Amino acid sequence: MKRMFTVLAALASFSTPALAQSSSTAPQLNITTEAALNMAHYAVGLAESRHLKLCIAVEDTDGNLVAFIRMQGAYSGCVDASIAKAKSAARFARNTIEFFDAARAQNLPIGFVPGILPSAGGAVFKQGDVVVGSIGTSGDTNENEQALVIDAAKHFH
């Protein structure tokens, strides 16, 4: 029980900043279907230029799948992993590598907390300072997946 309290206390440091207005009175910004498809295709182009075969998932801020591409040759096991990475990034409004690094540095079992996936390959993208969606990849090394989602997220405007 004490260990779970430690994990939850550590997660408190990952809290996301609130929007300026109450979510009950202001609509939440979210990625459009067209933008999600563009993001997925852009990520495929990056992956092809780097000779990677990936599954790529783009989700809205609630962690709902909006676009998905499984590149030819990508492992079928990567489908669920890419979606889970995007979902974790979206629901906590932060890149999944932050959970991965915290889990390793502090030996925290945060992977057991529902919705958190401590892994490389999940990133949020923003419109201004507001998260509007996320992207998750799976199918290659942590380094290659993380570099791709960061590069794809930077491309979003």
Name the descriptors.
Heme-binding protein; alpha+beta; 157 residues; signal; four-stranded antiparallel sheet; single chain; globular; Beta-Lactamase
| pLDDT averaged residue by residue | 85
Q: Kindly report the oligomeric state of this protein.
A: single chain
Helix count from the secondary structure assignment? 5
CATH architecture field: 2-Layer Sandwich
- The largest beta-sheet arranges its strands as 2-1-4-3
What sort of overall outline do the alpha carbons produce when their principal axes are compared? Answer: globular
Q: Quick one: CATH class?
A: Alpha Beta
Q: Name the beta content range.
A: 15-25%
Main pleated sheet? 4 strands, antiparallel
Task: Provide the structure class.
Answer: alpha+beta
Count all strands and give the number: 4
Question: What is the helix fraction of residues, given as a range?
Answer: 40-55%
Instruction: Specify Rg, calculated over alpha carbons.
Output: 15 Å
CATH superfamily: Haem-degrading domain
End-to-end separation in angstroms reads 44 Å
Q: How many domains, in number, for the residues?
A: 1
CATH fold name: Beta-Lactamase
The arrangement of helices and strands along the chain is HHEEHHEEH
Low-confidence stretches are 1-23
Keywords: Signal
Signal peptide: 1-20
Protein name: Heme-binding protein
Pfam family, one: HbpS-like
Would you kindly provide a written description of the structure presented here, covering whatever features stand out?
With 157 residues, the chain is an alpha+beta fold. It is globular, with a radius of gyration of 15 Å. The chain has one domain (29-155): Haem-degrading domain (Beta-Lactamase), CATH 3.30.450. The chain has helices at 2-12, 33-49, 78-92, 96-106, 142-155; strands at 55-59, 65-70, 122-127, 130-138. It has 5 helices and 4 strands. It has a 4-stranded antiparallel beta sheet. 38% of the residues are buried. Mean pLDDT is 85; it is low at 1-23.
